[in-house]
From TrEMBL:
The modification 4-aspartylphosphate is found at residue 53. Residues 4-120, 156-271 form the Response regulatory domain. It comes from Sneathiella chinensis. Keywords: Phosphoprotein. It catalyses: 2 GTP = 3',3'-c-di-GMP + 2 diphosphate. This is diguanylate cyclase. Its EC number is 2.7.7.65.
Length: 457
């Protein structure tokens, strides 16, 4: 996962050590040696993550973090404080200032990269939602004030712990400010999570009746709970389980013995983030319903895709990150309409759209380009990954007949797909043209295949 990371520390050797560790993992590292410079670089360079020392002269890390979070330009950049301070009060102060997590010096490599990867995954997802919201605002289909309500509405928490004593401790911490549900059985917890519209799952890693890591994995796998934040309660000595949890998609953790103040602050952060994410998703769906979806298939329409693609390419202009594009066409679709009628053709288009949705990733944008032609925009994606997704989609379409006319007719359908990747400073029209050329090559070569067009002629 390539990303730009800002390292801030007044001690030059500390900066160099972190810079070397991150560079080995192919992160783009920029550095600052004091708070004021860090604030300027954060606004100018738009890093994906900030590793921020606490103890600095002139302006300490707490103040820097507060200023970053108050600035709309930098408020959504994850901040990890790197400090020799180990007191819980210091961690709480940092979290209150807006920090996403703490790393204690000397920094453990395993903990460093687990936390970096976890926060970068979250930021990528949130950036995509904010970008889609900005696109919708530019189109005038929603206003900046639109949303489902206050971000301070009472949150709903699902706490999973099969130890009755510690479960009641959690209830005592949460019941005044949150609507809390306690469950000690994994299967029951999953049923509740899938239907309960919770803002946070709090999972004890000390559960003995089931594997809590398995529970975390299943929450991330299920469609209904994939976006549910997870906060785990972990023994201080159980680093291996903590790291595995972060790799599985756990958002945050509190070490045992639990400090109630730290638990309360981390919980509040996750609940507010979930409610903000829900607001973004609400606006996104509302804007699609109003103006930018195709009425038949429910996918984005050409107008929205073009604006979104232009925004992505413009954003990537100064800091090149590839945008890949898939253009696909249903093979012999005219024959379907001519033989069976347009109602059957519409059924095919709907099912084809559904299969696209199952095959592409959450950050990708799929649209109906026109007629039986569809486009998928894939941000921050190279040609190899895009080709793999295209091949998976081709197999998904060809592998099972399309059931149409209310199940009375089955049709074998295939598609041809053209794939290309943007070049630095490329415009959307040339990118679309190259993908289209690859599509027509796939048709000339016999259809039901994927063809790539790697670079401009």
């Amino acid at each position: 996962m390539s990303a730009r990371i800002l390292v801030v520390d007044d001690v030059i050797p500390n900066v160099k050590i972190l810079e070397a560790k991150l560079s080995v993992e192919y992160y783009d590292v920029i550095t600052a040696y004091n708070g004021p410079d860090a604030l300027v670089l954060a606004e100018e360079e738009s890093p994906d993550l900030i590793l921020l020392d606490v103890m600095m002269p002139q302006m300490d890390g707490f103040e820097v973090c507060q200023r970053l979070k108050k600035n709309p330009v930098t408020a959504h950049i994850p901040v990890v404080m790197v400090t020799a301070l180990s007191e819980t009060a210091d961690r709480v102060q940092g979290l209150e200032a807006g920090a996403d997590d703490f790393l204690t010096k000397p920094v453990d490599d395993v903990a460093l990269f687990a936390r970096v990867k976890s926060l970068l995954r979250l930021k990528m997802m949130m950036d995509e939602f904010r970008l889609r919201e900005a696109t919708s605002q530019d189109l005038g289909v929603i206003s900046p004030e639109d949303g489902p309500g206050s971000l301070n509405q009472k949150g709903r928490i699902l706490a999973i712990d099969d130890n009755n004593f510690s479960a009641q401790q959690l209830r005592a911490v949460y019941e005044e400010k949150y609507d809390v549900t306690i469950e000690g059985d994994m299967e029951e917890a999953l049923v509740l999570a899938r239907g309960g519209d919770f803002d946070l799952a709090v999972i004890s890693m000390n559960c003995t009746g089931f594997d809590p890591l398995r529970l975390c994995s299943r929450i991330r796998t299920l469609e209904e709970t994939r976006q549910l934040p997870i906060l785990t309660l972990v023994d201080d000595s159980d680093t291996e389980r903590l790291v595995k949890g972060l790799e599985l998609g756990v958002n945050d953790y509190v070490m045992r013995p639990i400090d109630n103040n730290e638990l309360a602050v981390r919980t509040r952060t996750q609940v507010l983030r979930k409610q903000y994410q829900d607001r973004l998703r609400h606006n996104y769906h509302r804007s699609m319903e109003l103006a930018v979806t195709d009425a038949l298939t429910g996918l984005y329409n050409r107008r929205y895709m073009t604006n979104h693609l232009n925004t992505l390419l413009s954003k990537a202009g100064a800091d090149y990150r590839p945008v890949s594009l898939l253009i696909m066409d249903i093979d012999y679709f005219k024959k379907v309409n001519d033989t069976h009628g347009h109602d059957v053709g519409d059924d095919v288009l709907k099912q084809f759209s559904s299969r696209i949705g199952k095959s592409v990733r959450g950050i990708d944008l799929a649209c109906r380009f026109g007629g039986e032609e569809f486009v998928v925009v894939m941000p921050d994606t190279d040609l190899a990954v895009a080709t793999g997704v295209a091949e998976r989609l081709r197999r998904e379409v060809a592998g099972q007949p399309f059931s149409v006319s209310q199940g009375t007719l089955e049709l074998d359908i295939t598609c041809s797909i053209g794939v290309t990747m943007s070049q630095p400073n490329e415009q959307s029209d040339t990118l679309l043209k190259r993908a289209d050329e690859a599509l027509y090559q796939a048709k000339r070569d016999g259809r039901n295949r994927v063809v790539t067009n790697s670079a401009p002629a």
